[in-house]
Amino acid sequence: MPSETRIFKANRIVTMNTSLPQATHVAVRDGRILAVGGPELVDAVGPATLDDRFAGNVIVPGFVEGHGHAADGLMWRNPYVGYFPRTAPDGARHAGFRNLRDLIDQLRWTEAAMTGPDKPLVAWGFDPIYFDGPRLTLADLDSISTRRAVVVAHVSGHIQNVNSVVLQRAGFSADSNLQGLVRDAAGQLTGELQGPAVMGRASRVTGDPGLTRVLDVPALRDFGKLTRRVGVTTATDLANTLADETVTAMHVATAEDDFPLRLVPALRARDYGVREGIARIAALRRLNSERLHFGVAKLVVDGSIQGFTARLRWPGYHNGAPNGLWYVAPAELGGIIEAYHQAGIQLHLHTNGDEASELAIEMIGRAVSAHPRLDHRHTLQHCQMAEEAMFRRMNTFGICVNLFANHIYYWGEQHRALTIGPSRAQRLNACATALRAGVPLAIHSDTPVTPVDPLFTMWCAVNRFTAQDRVLGPYERITPEQALHAVTLGPAYTLHMDHLIGSIDVGKFADFAVLDRDPLAFEKMKIREISVRATISGGRVFDNA
Amino acid sequence: MTPIPLTVIGGFLGAGKTTLVNHFLRTATRRIGVLVNDFGAINIDAALIASRDSEMVALTNGCVCCGTGDDLGAGLVRLMARERGIEHVIIEASGVSDPWRVAQLALVEPGFNLEPIVVVADGVALPRQLRDRWVSDTVRGQLLAAELVVLNKAEHATAEARAAIQAIRPEARLIETRHGVMSADLLQFPTRPPSRFRAEVVVEHAFQSWHFIPDGPFDRDRLRALLVGLPASVLRVKGFCRLGREAAPHLLQFASGQWALSSSDALEPGLVVIGTPMMPDSDELTALFDAALSH
């Protein structure tokens, strides 16, 4: 088939290419960018179709979600009961629940419509910290069903509410006194389960994988629908065991003609021995295609700040909670980093607390000093509490960072009041300091933890507003240009893909987001209201209308 | 169904947990199932291995060993479903995990008896670990959970290491080993069948056990008050009892201030109480438990 050239004309094209920051026309051939410029392009590139349906819009590079999870595509098989509005893969807007009454009523209707008595009802995304007044009770969940297992999973992942059916099947009687079985003032079980031991038991007796299902092709298609609706053209799945059946599903889904996304799965290194993990990545790399990019590995160093499992330096948690957990022993972490580093593999290290970030920097520093390798681009993920000195050391060792900007909005108030207190909250996800220290910066959503939506993530980094309209850390606000970079070329760099994606330049993949406004010229506080008109992946247009 | 003894072996990275487990596997006289809380880390003497697949290693003497990731409970259930006839389960905790969090599984999953929580300490590295800026709280926390501390590399252990253990966890029994060699008897609490006497204290292995045959059902509230108020020297209460007016017996498992009570089909009521040498004596325990009965 002869290749066809198509020229997209826009009101403005923001290229993120410093040699040619702005344009109005971009020519595409074979899924790649052939030329960028003004109206002169029409004559310069030879026979071409001029596509002017976006003539009134703004084209930016397709967004890159540098820290997301494809499991987002699985979540929507279960009802969403979060507080904040959220859009499902089919485009349905879920308004979220502002009170418990509505939430319970909705689950009652959902239950009534379910067929087959054995299938559990598992709802996800519940976040009670925003509700005043009474907690969700056992009576509430029993009012949904006393015959079917009902589980309401909290957004944190560490807590869930269950009904009496689940308690009974799990053998959790009111006579027992187990850690993680929450009781009310009268000593009765509330149906709230905390921690892996009791939650694990409950999930095993509900008889359905619920939220722990393994990725399949339909889930990946749904992930593609979620990401393309918000202008994302490349997303990570950070991280995955990458067992054969998952790899096959990724291979099949990404090979489909209308799959709108480049997928970058990271191997969960701890699911393998060190040698086996390195060998697994080498084997997976042979399956790489234009839309599927294996090759990076992920390591989780600590837990989460709001779950009080992140490792914090002195003075620790603001509310006096004991320090969090290492998910890998420091010396062992050093050994794993050294081995992957020597094997030429790039590592993404989850470090939430500042002590975890400090340890990771130290261990990468040792590996880099012992085995110099330029351009390794090891990246700290989340790295929410790092301060100036840490960013300077990251710069010294060539470490990149992907900060969790969405946290400022979703949990900023909790961090200020409970976890790290008002002073350290000023530098929560310190984007400006990272840039001043010269550390390559990306920002992320960690979807499904918070919804994937890079324009919203940009808005968070630019304005630093919490859910209660407070500016948290005004000196860490960055400009819209910096924020746009941090959701395009920035994350592309942290994935070793900046030569392929992240800006609009000749030779790169024709991956664009078409917006109704220019995020660099629009009011800063309204960046999150900009709509994505279409997403273009490899030159193929996915219209959002 | 007779509950299967379950022993948790914890301790920091490098302390010698795997050496200890290998020793038990090598000298096993019954079928041990080992669950290692780490992928790809199954490290067993090659001479012992009969076969190996992606999730499990089978040994020539009938023992099996498998690795598992974060969801230990799922790993335990998978192991028991796949291998019938396991007579003792050992969970080798990861080098950074809190052994008590692992042990909680034995209360949550039915069918297990929680045996002593064993924490292996590195006789050489321990003092340094307890001063380390990154790991001191983790190592200390592990020792605090111990009921039996195994001081490994004892031939090189310093007085400082012994003193540190004594200071952090004086209640635990301390065993010194070289190359992880110790008797498998220590993996279980000693228990003897009750004699014709109603109550009897057996001193053995430095753990004490006491048997109690309630001559009626417990009162729910009084039993709860009794269990809440038990001193830290009481490590376990386990066995069968009746509650209130319910005819069906209940299985009780108590450890570290937590307990599970579940309906059961046992025939004879009878509880065994296990503790440190500081445990209250027979008369005191009789008085405590008698006072919790319904009558």
Task: Describe the model.
The complex is a heterodimer of chains A (about 550) and B (about 300). Chain A has about 550 residues and is of the alpha/beta class. Among the domains of chain A are: about 80-210, Diaminopimelate Epimerase, Chain A, domain 1 (Roll); about 300-480, TIM Barrel. Chain A is about 30% helix and about 20% strand. In chain A, the strands form four sheets. In chain A, strands 1, 2, 3, 4, 5, 21, 22 and 23 form an eight-stranded mixed beta sheet that branches. Chain A has an eight-stranded parallel beta sheet with strand order 6-14-15-16-17-18-19-20. In chain A, helix 13 packs across helix 16 (about 455-465). Chain A is globular. The mean pLDDT of chain A is about 95. By secondary structure, chain B is of the alpha/beta class. Chain B has two domains: about 5-185, P-loop containing nucleotide triphosphate hydrolases (Rossmann fold); about 200-290, 2-Layer Sandwich (Hypothetical Protein Yjia, Chain: A,domain 2), CATH 3.30.1220.10. In chain B, the strands form two sheets. In chain B, strands 3-4-5-2-6-1-7-8-9 form a nine-stranded mixed beta sheet, sandwiched between helices. The interface of A and B includes residues 175, 276 and 355 of A.
Summed up:
The complex is a heterodimer of chains A (545) and B (295). Among the domains of chain A are: 78-212, Roll (Diaminopimelate Epimerase, Chain A, domain 1); 301-478, TIM Barrel (Alpha-Beta Barrel), CATH 3.20.20. Helix content of chain A is 31%, strand content 21%.
The total domain count of chain B is 2
Query: Which segments of chain B are poorly predicted (pLDDT under 50) over 5 or more consecutive residues?
Result: 194-204
Give the end-to-end Cα distance of chain B, rounded to a whole number of Å: 30 Å
What is the name of the CATH class of the largest domain in chain B?
Alpha Beta
**What is the CATH homologous superfamily assignment of the largest domain in chain B?**
P-loop containing nucleotide triphosphate hydrolases
CATH architectural designation of the domain at 301-478 in chain A: Alpha-Beta Barrel
Based on Cα principal axes, name the global outline of chain A. globular
